[in-house]
Amino acid sequence: xxxxxxxxxYIAGHLNPDIDSIASAMxxxxxxxxxDGKNAIAVRTGSLxxxxxxxxxxxxxxxxxxxxxxxxRFNRIARPLPPILPDRPLHEALSIIxxxxxxxxxxxxxxxxxxxxxxxxxxxxxxxQIRTLVDFEKVSVATLLSIKCxxxxxxxxxxxxxxxxxxxxxxxxxxEERNDFIVTRDDGTYFGVCRSPDVLTPPKMQLILVxxxxxxxxxxxxxxxxxxxxxxxxxxxxxxTITPIPFYIxxxxxxxxxxxxxxxxxxxMPPPAIVALLLAGVISDTLLLASPTTTKRDHIIxxxxxxxxxxxxxxxxxxxxxxxxxxxxxxxSLSVLSxxxxxxxxxxxxxxxxxxFGLAQIEVGNLNELGPRVKExxxxxxxxxxxxxxxxxxxxxxxxxxxxxRLVVAGNQxxxxxxxxxxxxxxxxxxxxxxxxxxxxLPVILGFLE
Amino acid sequence: xxxxxxxxxYIAGHLNPDIDSIASAMxxxxxxxxxDGKNAIAVRTGSLxxxxxxxxxxxxxxxxxxxxxxxxRFNRIARPLPPILPDRPLHEALSIIxxxxxxxxxxxxxxxxxxxxxxxxxxxxxxxQIRTLVDFEKVSVATLLSIKCxxxxxxxxxxxxxxxxxxxxxxxxxxEERNDFIVTRDDGTYFGVCRSPDVLTPPKMQLILVxxxxxxxxxxxxxxxxxxxxxxxxxxxxxxTITPIPFYIxxxxxxxxxxxxxxxxxxxMPPPAIVALLLAGVISDTLLLASPTTTKRDHIIxxxxxxxxxxxxxxxxxxxxxxxxxxxxxxxSLSVLSxxxxxxxxxxxxxxxxxxFGLAQIEVGNLNELGPRVKExxxxxxxxxxxxxxxxxxxxxxxxxxxxxRLVVAGNQxxxxxxxxxxxxxxxxxxxxxxxxxxxxLPVILGFLE
Lengths: 450, 450
Prior knowledge:
Largest sheet of chain A: 6 strands, parallel
Number of strands of chain A: 17
Radius of gyration of chain A: 28 Å
Oligomer: homodimer
CATH superfamily of the largest domain in chain A: inorganic pyrophosphatase (n-terminal core)
Distance between the termini of chain A: 45 Å
Number of helices of chain A: 17
CATH class of the largest domain in chain A: Alpha Beta
Helix content of chain A: 25-40%
Largest interface: A-B, 29 and 29 residues
Strand order of the largest sheet of chain A: 3-2-1-9-10-11
């Protein structure tokens, strides 16, 4: 993570990101960079789906960097002060100390840190020297200052690796008399130094959330970041902020639609790969404009983006349907994934009245694929409930083409047995005509729990 | 409330509305009506300030209707079925019952309801008649059907007044064998009928919130309404919604700016009075564009609105400053209000970590006005804390012209004594340079409680 600039803005979709989350993060990062000159960086908060990987590869785009949690790490606060070798004279260290007001790192020839020369360590050396001198008037200051750094160095200074969470070092630093510390690369070599105030109140990571606003669906340690903006198309389920921030939710089929609208309004022209990515975001989240979440605005955006894509020649498809067919045919199919993967790949967690529950979704070519696997999927769902402490979990297996779903339910099933879906012999439920988790399944379940 | 249409959209600002809340509600109602053909109605959720009353009067605008809470009342579910007189024959009632599937109201000549003829009451009458007849073959149906309604009527049917909250009748209806009820005007005369399903699950009031999003600052019984949109410029402090709704927060100086931007984007031209009202909204919320919440967008909007106002000739001021001076000179002054009014006129409640607290604000011409009244204001604040169960309350007395404030604090003062404001001899605190409750005072206090 060395290469990160000091104050970037990270743009993150939800956990288990789908194409819409990845596309809207990358599209918005492009806009903020081009329009506003911001150092905006799209990140992913989990593994890419097979669909997204295929898409990025097809478009020649690098996957966004993985950001597992929003807790600041030592790379955020380390100062890459140039180190000096242990045999250099003390005055070299002293001039650095007075310039930077921080201890000077001493490294061996292999670049492994040996310790710090600090104001305190120098004072200790000098007072020892002076105490043991019989006649200190005869010793010049120059002699003292030519002592090797090695002798004046504090070798016990704590070292923290770059990738460590700053919050995990807080207790140690609070109990420590020293103020300056060493930061190492993950291979143990020297990277920089840091000071205790940086550890106790590290600068927060600036974060923009796209395609979600619920804390339970967001990057770990969100509370340690500074949330600066939200752009989404889901229900409001967020927590309070301290100050006003731009917070946009609008009822369209995909966040990619909202980002595309902003790009079009900016008058800027994104690279064809970004256009195609946003088009895929709209197509996948609206299930080829067929989901009940689809609005006129999504239709208009698909038309505009398709027009731009066609001009650029980046995609070999004659219309958005052909592109969608190619996209959906890569969809992680029921038949190849492990039960564990099936229930977690596109899992979202929700809270209602102190109850937490999970709704997972998977797209299939044919609902008949489900039959032979119901038992193991049920078991995986039960395990999920236990490991995450969920009241219940539902897997929605959706046939995109025929616009139907089947539900597999685990956990507190008694609670859900009165859902308005027909129970089938294999203990699944028939949800004919239901394809949208957000707009069709979730409201029914929330209404149920209310 | 008889005149309300069945499915209006109400647009409400925060409790204790200021000019920005009233202006943005009225401006947005105008836009939704003109652009989208909606039956949008701006409402106020409390008394108008002296400033707002003066402004509306000057502009020749009616104050928005008062809406005290969002709980549906009987006017929402009453069906104005035409009543019949007690001496009319039963067959008239029966034909109405079969058309409307609801009991037929019988009223006296003074229009006071006497009871309902329902399927059940008719059946009871007929079976009594038939049981007492010696030879019922000789009695024609026509004879039965010419019995007067009075004899077949159920006089014990519960009556509910139009202005009663439907939720307050729920328990009675649950314990009632009858399904049909009478709704009366507030003077006791007949208005209509209603059925038990309407009482048990009344249609929710459609509500748009402007200039606030926190439940504690919103209309009473918000949870009984259907929240359909939020437009605001304060911190996010809302509760979850069941489905996605348009939810816009943006960091500008006033909600009137956001509404004006939408009106300008629509290409429509509002009446001069609405333009002037929105201008006053921006001017008052940004303290004449001097508050730290002011953005370039507010400046642009003031310029645009001022231009339109000048053309229309509705205001006799040469620029926004003159208009602002006129507006602020009406401000409810410290010297005329009761201590109770001073601490509640512009009071907002907040929640943080289960603690509730209140921040009130009042604008003055000169902070010296405060001196002689500190004691009684402190007492009023203490009473406020007790009556509302607040952890603490702060009154921010703001000199708009010199951009300074003085704070009076009550409740758990120990908690607040370390606030970064200078304590003065009269037990107030000096907050020089602080004028914005939202952007300057609230973040400090939230940071403090965190």
